[in-house]
Design goal:
The chain has about 180 residues and is mainly alpha-helical. The chain has six helices and six strands; from the N terminus they run αββαααββαββα. The strands form three sheets. A two-stranded antiparallel sheet has the order 1-2. The protein has a two-stranded antiparallel sheet with strand order 3-4.
């Protein structure tokens, strides 16, 4: 698997395809059309690779950054950037992914542009709805994954316990143990 899905929310997991945004050299997980195809397959959004092109990849990266701009604005309680709103709305107006029932169950097929339209529509629902208040960015300094904090007290600090949460807790434990041995 080339991609991770710690959020359980596809547009936010899509934003996470640019890892460690605050670093001098973030890690690009969508470096080729093939990796974009892999993302659609691994996410379960599409059952067959859409055969993304370089143009599709460019559109995907533009949409990803527009989604991140909107999420950051909501987190920081700033007005939504007009350019990002226009980009997401343009994609959201696109054709939907095709859903078909067959002998083996449901299958989802479509082009990369149709997959991006689905991501944009879900983004509109998140940013424009009540869930926008639940948007957070991981507190681990090396991680910039965004997520919806659906925890009971809305005090979750990291994108996923099994990754960032464990790393933060282990580092704090090591610091306490090392500090106590001076």
């Amino acid at each position: 698997m080339n991609h991770a899905f710690p959020c359980g929310t596809l547009p936010l997991d899509f934003v996470g395809t640019l890892r460690a945004r605050r670093n001098d050299e973030p890690m690009e997980k969508l470096a080729s059309p093939e990796l974009l195809d892999d993302w659609f397959l691994e996410s379960g959004m599409l059952g067959l690779a859409p055969g993304a092109s370089e143009a599709d990849l460019a559109l995907a990266l533009e949409l990803r950054e527009a989604i991140y701009s909107l999420v950051a604005a909501r987190i920081e309680r700033r007005p939504l950037p007009a350019e990002a709103v226009a980009e997401v709305n343009l994609h959201a107006a696109g054709l939907p992914v095709t859903l078909r029932l067959g002998p083996d169950g449901a299958t989802r097929t479509g082009t990369a542009v149709q997959g991006l339209a689905a991501l944009a529509r879900e983004t509109v629902e998140i940013i424009g709805g009540d869930e926008a208040a639940l948007l957070r960015e991981c507190a681990r300094p090396e991680c910039t994954q965004v997520y919806l904090d659906r925890s009971r007290g809305h005090r979750r600090d990291w994108c996923a316990m099994r990754t960032c949460g464990n790393r933060v807790k282990a580092a704090a434990y090591r610091a306490r143990r090392h500090g106590g041995k001076s």
